[in-house]
Amino acid sequence: MKDIQSQEDHRRINIKKVGVKTISYPITVLDKAHSQQNTIASFNMYVNLPHHFKGTHMSRFVEILNRYHGAIDIGNFHNILQEMKDKLEAEAAHIEMSFVYFLSDADNADNLKSRRYECIMHGSLEKENDLEFILNVPVSIPLAKQMATGLPQSLGQWGRVVSAVKFRNFIWIEDLITLIEKAVDIAHEKASAPGENSMSVESLSHQIAQSLEEEKAIKSFSLKVENLAEGYSTFAAIESLA
After folding, report:
1. What is the pLDDT of residue 213?
2. Is 134's pLDDT higher than 80?
3. DSSP the chain
4. Under a CB-based contact definition with an 8 Å cutoff, are residues 217 and 167 in contact?
5. What region, left, alpha or beta, does residue 112 occupy, with left being phi > 0 and alpha being psi -120 to 50 degrees?
6. Residue 69: CB partners within 8 Å, gap ≥ 6?
7. Which of 84, 26, 36, 89 is nearest to 60 (CA)?
8. Which of 135, 145, 219, 235 is the most buried (most CB within 10 A)?
9. Which fold has domain 1-127?
10. Domain assignments of the chain as residue spans, ordered by start
11. Residue 30 has pLDDT above 60, yes or no
């Protein structure tokens, strides 16, 4: 059978993106306390095709993913991207891998034994490999403290911090979570001091940005801090200079 999708296209118009979305697949992520953590990821896989290709067989994306069955982790991202680029003869390859990461919280009897964090790993390969890790950290403040400081009443859920980080060196997911949560604690303590106003999205974003800038393993970052109130939300966004 003739491969219509790979025939030359004489219109010389590049296809910007073509691929597959929301593929559920088991993956392994590194866990500082337990070496590894098994979870389920949702994959978006797509490529930029040169003008001489009319298209590509979508099954090829799944075939590549299946070849890494049981061995999909952050360390294999570059290999998968390279194979996508080579096998599909693409100008660039991209993967978005969304997954939930769990962190043990056995010391806090008031919460579940594990805390849940939404993560996205975005990798691209054109001439060079580009990897970005996106972490969603919920910001919760005890209701009694909210009442004392005049913060919006939201049953302990103040808001969230979404950070997008590019790394210079390896860093554990747990350490990045801890870094952000410690910055939240510092910002809250400053806001609770006599004569100070309640914690704002601006003050919290500056505190987290300072902590991220001091971490040598982080090459660059952008972050958004969002405060959830009744009927609306406020936010502040900030990026590193690098």
Report:
1. 95
2. yes
3. ---GGGS--TT---EEEEEEEEEEEEEEEEETTTEEEEEEEEEEEEEEEPTT-----THHHHHHHHHTTT--SGGGHHHHHHHHHHHTT-SEEEEEEEEEEEEE-TT-TTS-SEEEEEEEEEEEESSSEEEEEEEEEEEE--HHHHHHHT---STTEEEEEEEEEEESS---HHHHHHHHHHHHHHHHHHHHSTTPPPP-HHHHHHHHHHHHHH-TTEEEEEEEEEEEETTEEEEEEEE---
4. yes
5. beta
6. none
7. 84
8. 135
9. Urate Oxidase (3.10.270)
10. 1-127, 136-242
11. yes
Distances from the Cα of 186 to the Cαs of 156, 180, 203, 224, in angstroms? 17, 10, 10, 18
Provide the pLDDT for residue 97: 94
The pLDDT tens digits of the residues spanning 161-188 come to 999 999 999 999 999 999 999 999 999 8
- Confidence at 1, pLDDT banded by 50, 70, 90: very low
Question: Between 201-214 and 173-192, two packed helices, what is the crossing angle to 10 degrees?
Answer: 140
CB 195 within 8 A of CB 210: no
- Determine the length of the chain: 242
What's the pLDDT score for residue 88? 86
At the fourth CATH level, the homologous superfamily of domain 136-242 is Urate Oxidase; (3.10.270.10)
Domains 1-127 and 136-242 share a fold: yes
